[in-house]
Amino acid sequence: MDVTVKATVYKNYINGEWKANPDGEKVANINPANGEVLGYVTLSTERDVDEAVRAAKEAQKSWAKVPAPKRGEYLFRIGEILRERKEALARLLTQEMGKVIAEARGEVQEAIDMAYFMGGEGRRLAGQTVPSELPDKHAMSLRVPVGVAGLITPWNFPIAIASWKIFPALVAGNTVVWKPATDTPALAYEFVKIFEAVGLPKGVVNLVYGSGGTVGRAMVEHPGIDIISFTGSTEVGSEINGRAGKLLKRVSLEMGGKNAVIVMDDADLDLAVDGIIWSAFGTAGQRCTACSRVIVHRNVKAELEERLVRRVESLKIGDGLDESVDIGPVINEKALKQIEAYMDVAKSEGAVLLCGGRRAEGGALDSGYYFEPTIFTDVTRDMRIAKEEIFGPVLSILAVDSLDEAIEINNEVNYGLSSAIFTRDTNQTFRAMRELDTGIVYINAGTTGAEIHLPFGGTKATGNGHRDSGIAALDVFTEWKSVYVDYSGKLQRAQIDNN
Q1: From the candidates 110, 121, 254, 372, which is the catalytic residue?
Q2: For residue 324, what is the domain's CATH number?
Q3: I need a surface site. Which of 67, 258, 340, 455 has the fewest CB within 10 A?
Q4: Is residue 136 part of a domain?
Q5: Annotated active-site residue in 96, 110, 288, 389
Q6: Residues of 321-346 as b/e, b for ≥16 C-beta within 10 angstroms?
Q7: Active site (annotated) includes residue 288
Q8: In-domain check, residue 456
Q9: Do both 189 and 316 map to the same domain?
Q10: 21-66: per-residue pLDDT in tens?
C-alpha cells in the first residue's frame, strides 16, 4: 500500500472522528531536503484538548475492562499493518523529517518491534504473588492502569518514540491523548489511520495537533489527564515537571544528552571510527543519543583524528530518498541557525576546526537545510561545545591521559543518557560499565542503537527516573495495587497476631 499525504490540512482525531478546525492558524509541513510543502497542520486550542480528554476519559472506563491479552491483540494487528506499510511509511518519514531512507526504515521497524513486544505483554503484565506472614491468607500485587495518558513526542523520531509511549499505555489499559510535533504531522496522521484500521474503540487514541505553548500546556494542566509522558528538551521538560508536579500528576521525562565515546589507546581504531561516524552524523546529529564528544587517549589522538576526517570528507550530503546519501538535512532553518551559532562559540573559545563548520551549499542543497559534518579538536572540558547539547552534526574531540580522566570528563556534564568505550582491556571494560554515569552504556559500539526490550533513558538532566521502552515502560503507565485475601474465617492482625 502506498502512503501519501491524503489531506491538504491534517485533522485532529478525537473520539473516533477526524475533525477539522477551520478557524485555527495553519502551519506548513515542509520537506527539509528541498522546501516542498507536504501539507498544512492546524494549531489546535485548549477547547480541542478538552474535547479529546473527555473522550479519552469516557473510553477508559470500558477499555480498562477489556482483558489485557485482547488489548495486546490490537497491538499485534497494528504491528502487522506497520510491517505491510513499512516502505511507504519510511519514505514519508524521510520526506517529512529528512533522515536518510535506511534510517527511516529502521525507525519504522522499531515501531513494529514495539508493537509485537508490548502485544506480548498483554499476556503477562506481571504482578507478584508472595507468601503471607499469616496462615490461610493470600498476598499478591497487580498492575492497574493510571487512567488518561497525555503524550508529547518530538519530530526526530516521529513514529518510534510515539510507539514507545502509546503501546505500553494501551496494553496497560490507559487511553491516550497524543500531541505530536508540528514539524512531523504526516507520520502522526498515518499512524493514527492504522489505529483506526484495526478497529480500536472510539476515544482510546486521540490525536491533537498544536504548539507546546497552547496544546502542550493545556494537556499538562488538564485535570482529566493523569500522566504526562514527554520527550524533548530539558528546558521544556523541567517546566512540564514543575507545572504537573504541583497538580500531583505522574510525569515521565526523556530529555537531552551530551554523549561521549571514549577511545582508549588499545582500541580497534577502525571499529571506533565506524562507531563514531554513525553515532555523530547519523540523523544529521539530531538524536538525543548522538555522539557529540570523543574522549580519546592522547597516544592515539592524532591517528584517530586523521581517520575521522578522511571518513567525514567521503560522506555524501543530500536528499535522504537517494539511497547513496549518508547525511540528510536538519529539520528547519531555526535548527540550522542554532548550529551555526555554535561554530562562532567554538572558535571564540579556542577550539580548532578540522572539517566542516558551515552550511552545505551548491546545487540542490541550496533549497534545503543542510550542514556539513563538523569536527573540532583541542576542545577542553570547560568549553560550551563540550558541555551543551548542539543537536546537529558537530563532534568535539577531547584528549586524556587515562581511563580515570576519561570517566571523570564523561560524567561531569549535566546529562547522563548514553556513553560508549572502545577498548580491548576487560578490566577497563568492567570499570567503565560500573562508573560511567549514564542510563545506557555501549562497549565497543557507538552511543546509538538502543533495542526496544531494554529500558531507554538516563540520569541527571536527561530524565526524572522513569524509562521508555522495555518492561520498565509499564511502570510508567501502571499503578501497583496490593491485594490480601484472608480465608481463615477470623480476624487476623498483621504484625500483631504473627508474633
Answers
A1: 254
A2: 3.40.309.10
A3: 67
A4: yes
A5: 288
A6: beeebbbbbbbeeebbeebeebbeeb
A7: yes
A8: no
A9: no
A10: 877 889 999 999 999 999 999 899 999 999 999 999 999 999 999 9
